[in-house]
Amino acid sequence: QNEEKWDFVLVSDIHEMGSEKEIKRKKFLDELSKKGFTIKKIEDTKLFYGVRAPQHIFWKYQRILANPDSRQQNSSPQQDIPVTTRIRVVHFILQNTVTSDLEKLHDLMKKKVFEAAFPLHKKEEIREILKKKWARWRVIFKEQPIEEIRCYFGEKVALYFAWLGWYTYLLIFAALAGLATVAAGATVFSSSQVSKEICDANNTIMCPLCDQNCSFWVLSDTCTYAKVTHMIDNEATVVFAIFMAIWATVFLELWKRERATVATNWDLYGWDEEEEELALQLINNSQHEPRLYQHSYFRSTIVLILALLMIMVLIGIAHALVIYRAVAMALFTQSEVNLLSKHADTIAVMTGAVLHYLTIVIMTKVRSHTACLPGFLQEPRTFSQRENSFTVKIFLFQFFTNFSSLIYIAFFLGRINGHPGHYVRIAGHWRLEECHPSGCITDLFIQMAVIMLLKQTISNIMEYLVPWISHQLRKRQKHPKKRSMMLGEEEEAEDPCKRQWLNNYELNEVNVFSLFNEYLEIVIQYSFTTIFVAAFPLAPLLALINNVIEIHMDAIKMMRLCRRMVPRKAKDIGIWLQVLETIGTLAVIGNGLVIAITSDFIPVQVYKYMYSPCTRENHTSMDCSTGYINNSLSVFHIQDFEPHTKVLPEFKGVQIKKYRDYRNADDYTYTVQFWHIFAARLAFLILFEHVALCVKLIAAWYIPDVPQKVKNRILREKHSNLQNEL
């Protein structure tokens, strides 16, 4: 029955006859009727208008673009055009139909003339295949039916799932390398010379962690912490960081090959987004004049200033987290509760990480409400330009939100806090945190672990539960009204479309940026998996587990909980590829800095080759890092304490104590060893980044972006076409 095939449904409240909203609605529907659209009205608690476009619109579309769609599958019997193309064309015309009041559908929806406009999930064979092979938990480890996804949701959604599937597959290798790194660290958990020295340092008395009521402490008290640090921070971590820099490049190069194959199979190589948009504008209005390219330096300057202000706000939030940690540390160390005072530093780090996660959630909500402002200022010419501009700005915002606190912990924590007798203080009162004598890398490990685990559990549960609960509530609200309407009335034959339209209306709303949010979530996760991965080798494993669940959760949301997305055509993942390449470069810089600055790898190597007993005597049986801990601690005299520092009575007799730094015992200036280590850190950073970037470039050159068979296929097609023309 041709009559049952409706392209779109418009939903409106029941307005009073003659009201402004009712007049505006009638004007819009009259404009559609003039274009030859068939409109069907069904009344329930809302007004539903089914819209079907005339056939001549699609003939025009095919003729103008000489479209290869007619060769593709998923066409309904009477039509030689795929359903996805049909919905896309109708959606464009609906969005660009102008009433006599110069209002478009977007304006009418803002004024509540229409409440919703959506294509329908219909009982098609392809939908049943997707529900069976994709949108259910029992097929979680099976290959995705990408071709079917494309035939139902369009190329853009299919490319997202193809990319996500490819990324997840390659994460297996990164996860195995991360596990191997942790396993290598676990073998030295108790045997590491550096952690052994900390565990045996029963007579090394360290400076208090706070000014009031904090006792000196013995270095051996932190034995377990030291063992955990050296499980993360060892030679295997350096190898893993280089591996991940190469992995990020290989992943992108292999994806480019995969995309080239997919684009060729889907006949997308000759497709041009701008040409399609111009064709649709002309089909909608044959008198349409193209909107020309424009650039306003004034508007760009305003956007740049707003972006810088936003980044400053995010840096301010990072500062607030630093202040929280300093204050929390001071309060926890003075706490009556033994557990809090004993593990004050670890608890301050963990609660700080939870607080950082909460700021990420809050700032994401703020972002969703202010996201469109830069777009209005710049007024992009086409939808893809608008999407690209939006992507760059929002990614920068989310990146700074997620990483500002991590950057502080990785590169500033314990380096800007001064030294005993001359501490740097917040508001002249609270001391900044110090690093543990075995290094700062465990703080970064804890922060990343907490954020990744919370993002992947709470955020994912909310991402699934909110649409599910919303869908259930919408269903509940509908049915009682329907039953009360039918009481005492003769039951008349219900229109077969009514139930279908109501079911679709009860689903959750989707918008043009629904897919953008999915991309953003995975790209931020990719940043965590690559940029500071040297500090958290388990990140790829967590990402792998998350993605396996994410793919099927997104599938269930799209098929069962949300209205049908408007299918869009695309031949690649757009600007996200440049974003991923930028992250790949940042990953080399980030991991180089983590190993050079955050890790204790360089100080240990400098000690081994310049200051250890091995340099003075030829001890083949001795571990060259013997004596490293004592060498890395500086001496402080109690009489040099700041006046307001309280020393507990039991430590009155202690004349000197130790703290982590390379300073002279008399005037507290930096020692020669500090400058040796500083030079070694810089040398390592330059060497690591140049080697890693060279390897990335070689990998990019070695793996061609387009496979030979794809190039040959395109070549043969060109040759064949020219031969036929001749």
TrEMBL record:
Any one Pfam family match given in the protein's UniProt record, by short name: Anoctamin
Topological type in the membrane: Multi-pass membrane protein
Domain of life: Eukaryota
Keywords, sorted A to Z: Cell membrane, Glycoprotein, Membrane, Transmembrane, Transmembrane helix
Statement: the UniProt record of this protein carries the keyword Signal: no
Single GO MF annotation: chloride channel activity
Main location: membrane
GO cellular component: plasma membrane
Anoctamin transmembrane domain span: 149-717
Signal peptide boundaries: none
Transmembrane segments: 157-186, 236-255, 301-327, 347-364, 394-413, 523-549, 573-597, 678-703
Claim: Transmembrane is one of the keywords in the record: yes
Annotated compartments: Cell membrane; Membrane
Record domain Anoctamin dimerisation: where: 81-146
Family: Belongs to the anoctamin family.
UniProt cross-references to PANTHER family, sorted A to Z: ANOCTAMIN, ANOCTAMIN-9
Protein name: Anoctamin
Organism (species): Tichodroma muraria
